[in-house]
Each structure stands twice: as structure tokens, then as C-alpha cells.
Amino acid sequence: QVTLVESGGGLVQAGGSLKLSCAASGRTFSRAALAWFRQAPGKEHEFVATIGWSAGSTGYADSVKGRFTISRDNAKNTVYLQMNSLKSEDTAVYYCAANARGRRDEFRSWDYWGQGTQVTVSS
Fold this sequence. Notes:
This protein has strands at residues 3-7, 10-13, 18-25, 34-39, 46-51, 58-60, 68-73, 78-83, 92-100, 110-113, 117-122.
């Protein structure tokens, strides 16, 4: 059974930083793409960032480009999201996803999901 567990969320003031982690168990994802999505109240899941198995291939939503950095540690089967210069509009539940079967910026492409971690940015 595959399990993805996010951690690192919390309450932070605007302009601050947080680092999210997502640890996978049940199988190795060293050759799989990984991603972060988020969902704000009343809104659909929104793509945030993705990283290929080689770690050199990354992609970001325009809304977070230059502020967020996705990385991975294959030895730990873990993906990270460093979030800097946080804004109130970044407030959402953040989810990690693994193993895409289609476009990596589409919610429906991903096979495995974590339970989410809440990020709240106060202005």
C-alpha cells in the first residue's frame, strides 16, 4: 500500500517562509515524477509545482514562480516545497502527488495523493 504523508504546514505571516515535506512509503518513487497541488476553500485543486525523476526537470505555476522551490531526495523517498515570500493568497491545503500518467499540471493525471497539510498566511 502506497502512502504519502505531508508535513510542515502551519500559520505564518505574510512575507514569511515555510518548508513542506512529503514522505512516501510502500514503494519507491525514484523514477517517478512528483508534484505539489493546493486547494483553497471553495476552489478546485490548483497545480503548484512538479519535479521529474532526475530533479533537473521542474515546473511551476506562474503564481509561485520565483518564490517556491520544489526538490526531492530519492534516498529518503521524499519531496519538498520551500515556500518563500508567502502571500495571503497562498493560504490553502497543500497536497503532494506521485506518479503522473499525463500532463503533470493536471489533477487527474496523478495516481497517488497525500492527505494534505494546511498552510495559512496571515496578512
